[in-house]
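User: I'm curious whether this sequence folds into something compact or stays loose and floppy. Could you predict its structure so I can see for myself?
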Amino acid sequence: MDAIPPDHFLALSRLDGLLGSSESVYDTSTLAAHDFDVDNRTGFMPPQAPPARLPANWEPWELALDAAIAESLQLGDKSGITQAEMSRSESWRRRVRELPVLPVSGMIRSETDLRRAHLVLAWTMHFYIHSLPPDERVVVPAPITIPLFHICAQLQLPPVLTYSDTVLYNWTLKTPSQKPTPALDNLQSRTLFTGTNDEQEFYLTSARMELRGVEALELMRSTMDEAFVGDDLAMRRIATFLGRLATVIDDLKALIATVRDGCDTTVFYTEIRPWFRGADSDPAKRKWEFEGLDMDPSFVYPPELSGPSAGQSSLIHALDMFLGVDEFSHGAALTGGGGPTKKSPFLVRMQLYMPRHHRNFLNHLAANPRPLREIVMGAGDVALLGAYNDAVGALKRFRDYHITIVTSYIIQPARRAAAMKASEGNPGVEAEAPLKGTGGTELAKFLKAVRDRTAAAVIES
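Assistant: Here's the prediction. I'll summarize afterward.
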């Protein structure tokens, strides 16, 4: 576990003076503990660049991914795709089908190797699926299926590309540095579908937000320390922490805006985003078939397969839970399908795509016996109430701007594409149905509902 900052011990000593013992103290120091794979310097991102390659035993997987990138595989439904491009993709897919089915038992004890293996196989699988012609069955070959399902069982992740594969564990430093924390301008993505700077900037925008969010995690920990003291001084300190938290959230909003500087909206929509699609958002509604699934009785076909999504960021979920906004933003009606269904709320389901240690972190945060929102509501402290509402307001502004970004990068390009299809005498399917996100959500309706419910978390004085 990382060293606990001195102010933590100060908070505990004040609490000891009130209770006489710290044995029952809720352990807030673990909000930045290795148990949850949360670092006090880099948050949910690893403090060092993730490994660039797997050990030699699994080099065939690395070589297959290298070849997909080197041969610039194209989307199978790309407009104007040439016969040469289709042949090159099929030649690569044939080589993937001919790979040996490699055992994974040798990497079971290495979390970093398991993560790298999930990344490599998931990226390879998405290259394989999305380079297929749109009218062809999706059959993931056994050399990918079998090891991927074994790895997913160890990591408790679904067999699909996730936010952690594209952001958290997909970076290195541009130039070597001895600094304990990666600088926001010294990051670069390792793996790309398109090789474009646009794609890299899309991932790095999220990575920079994760790093800026480290202060938010520290403010959460400090607030929870003071909450267990509960005296007037503690309430004043919490109000100060919440004021700083609102600033951090506003900084996250400013960072998400920087995606416009390096990622073109048309390039993103037409060339990058289609590679992310999970089975849930396949425009042809093809089921993903996994060859070899019947070879192990422990293998179970996943109940859903969403692609990577910002909804899988543990940082944003942590902000929701800490502020008590999750009671509103994760509500039962927010299934992502446009209304109440038998499914769990979309943001709750997205936690299944997070690294399991980060899910445990969120569970730990949710188990706090003295939730901040209840403290604010019961304190009768005007300054504290104002600071809390300012933080919730900042989160609402963040979601306002996120809707603006989604509108620019997805909704407007989708409307233009549908209009173009209609002008060619082919009424677009997207013009008739709600636009889906990569996670299968009815995008605009869902995001606006989350934003509105966040605003509803403001406590009236």
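Summary: Residues 56-206 form one domain. The chain has 19 helices and four strands.
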